[in-house]
Amino acid sequence: ASKDDLAQLINFRKNMFQEDPPWDDSAYLQWRYSFDELSQGDNQVWVFKKDNEILGYIGIEKVSLSINNETLDAYKTMDLLVKPQLQGIGLGLWMVMTVKEMFSIVLGIGTNENSYPIYSKIMNEMEPIKKYKLIISTKTQVNRVLKFDLLSNIVSFPIDVTLMKYLSRGIRLPDGYSSKLIDYIPDEVNEFNCKNDKIYVQRDKNYLTWRYIENPRRKYSCLGLYLHNKLKAISISSILHSEINNQYEGHIVDWLFDITETTDDLQMYLYNETVIYLKKQGVKLIHASANDVNSGNLLSRLGFLPREENKTVFVYTSINELERNLYNNDLW
Fold first, then answer.
1. What is the pLDDT of residues 189-235, one digit of tens each?
2. Which residues touch 29 (CB under 8 Å, ≥6 apart)?
3. DSSP letters for 107-152
4. CA separation (Å) from 318 to 23, 106, 207, 299?
5. Gap between the Cα atoms of 83 and 91, Å rounded
């Protein structure tokens, strides 16, 4: 897509959302994608037209994937949207297949009820990223059932007191450890992407700054965990108002560690310090996700509960020698 497509693309999205988004969609799209002359290093949005009318589009983000101590280019698909009148005729499927033909490694992370059948037909489905929640206050959930404020207060109060006592146990940082909010991504995170025997999407300072600090759609907070004033880990979180629950909820969206010294304790300290920060901001619920069993176990130790829905992950590669590793859940 070029800048000539931007106005029509904004209108297309508005019609799909059936309302104006609460953010500046023009600023968001121009931050998310390149609308100038494209290069292999740009995030791209491809529009599919008939008689110059946009019928659908798909977004592509270029990422660096660490595989077997090598760094390879991979492409994440995003924002797969098709006009409602044309859904179900195969346009979405054709768009994803076109992306597969263009790139040798394609990732599809997070799908909805419309896009899931498309990806499941033509890409390899991996173990889903499990989602967790930490309940800070039960009043909203109780009120949704009882639909009466006074009674909800009476019922939820003793539950919340018990929850507060349980959560206040916390985990004390050992001597030498400290945490603090930082309004930038430190240089040290580049060292956190050390090579190892796992497959992962690399996130260096430039990527994290673009993805979270410069994001015009949402505000994120960065918390650093230090040992003797040396950065050992960071977490990225956001606070959003839930229209369904009518309350503010925290979201732990990313975290990185100095993997040369990473232990379960270090990861636990970071999770706990992030929870403490979000609780101080007044959130009533905290969301997190776990890419592996170990992270899920650590979240459970902090009181997080598994949610029913998870985030789907699809992988495709046209490189035969990579299939065995890329399609192995244990290596991610």
1. 998 865 567 888 989 999 999 999 999 999 999 999 999 999 999 99
2. 6, 9, 10, 35, 45
3. EEE---TTTHHHHHHHSEE-PPBEEEEEES--HHHHHHHH--HHHH
4. 38, 9, 26, 36
5. 10
Strands (E), the chain: 44-50, 53-67, 70-82, 105-109, 124-125, 130-135, 177-182, 200-201, 221-227, 230-242, 247-257, 285-290, 305-306, 313-317
Count of beta carbons in the 10 Å neighbourhood of residue 174: 9
Question: For residue 158, with 0-12 CB atoms within 10 Å meaning exposed, 13-18 middle and 19 or more buried, which class applies?
Answer: exposed
The DSSP secondary-structure symbol of 22 reads S
Asked if 181 and 222 touch (Cβ cutoff 8 Å), the reply is yes
Q: Are 253 and 157 in contact (CB under 8 A)?
A: no
- Residue 10's pLDDT is what? 93
- If one counts every other C-beta atom within 10 angstroms of the C-beta of residue 173, the result is 15
Measured CA to CA, the distance from residue 225 to residue 274 in angstroms comes to 10
DSSP 84: G
Distance of CA 91 to the CA centre of its chain: 26
274: helix, coil or strand? helix
